[in-house]
Amino acid sequence: MLLTRALVGILGIPLALVVVFYDGWPFLVALVLLSVLAIHEYYRMTRIYKPNRLAGYVGSLLILIGTYTGGLAGAMRGVVYTFLLTFILHAIRGLKPEMVGEMANTFFGALYVSVGFAHMLLLRQTSIGESLAILVLLATWTSDTVAYAVGHFYGHRPISPVISPKKTLEGTSAGFVGVIVVVLVVGKSLDWMNSWQFFVLGLTLAIAAPLGDLFESYIKRATHVKDAGTIIPGHGGILDRFDSLLFAAPAAFYVVNALMGNSL
Fold first, then answer.
1. Which among 169, 116, 125 is positioned nearest to 147, based on CA atoms?
2. Number of independent structural domains in the chain
């Protein structure tokens, strides 16, 4: 398992960095594809709540395209359109007591995934977008990889036996420290914040990334699913691979914006 994860990382990381580097429509297409696949996985896990898949898929497009063309305001318009579309497509099914819960599940799934990926677009659109987006990716990969490797070899104490019994205190702590170190080291070569500000960013990402992982684990345990999917060998599904990023990207966007005086 560890070797498979490493091989996938060796192949996948350079591809991801190239897509981020070129930005524009390749980055948008990549995020749309990831978002639709991740929403599909979420709806598969929560199918007992009868989500309207069409609303989620189209909503994802609306949110991401809105972000690409209109920034944060465009993302908000996409969220509103997704809400209206969710209501309309569920209302067509007819009035029934379960409709409120089904609408909530559909809308939440679209937001949980698409808003997280939309913030990667927002990060890339800033004046420091290339370096900031790559730094966030490096931090989340560090969190996942270091936590998994240290937990695999040295982990003994689970941090949450009910939600995620395989995640250990030793692994999570190592991932936490690793993220801060990576952000500080990379920050030395960047000139858009000082060391103290990069430390705050590193601390933020070190908290947000494992929370994203735990959040997805909570959904999987609640729906009695081991992995969100099987599309990525050694990792599981798209959600299993990018769950940390869905929390880290929004956290990075707002924290860096605050640290730089709303000048992104």
1. 169
2. 1
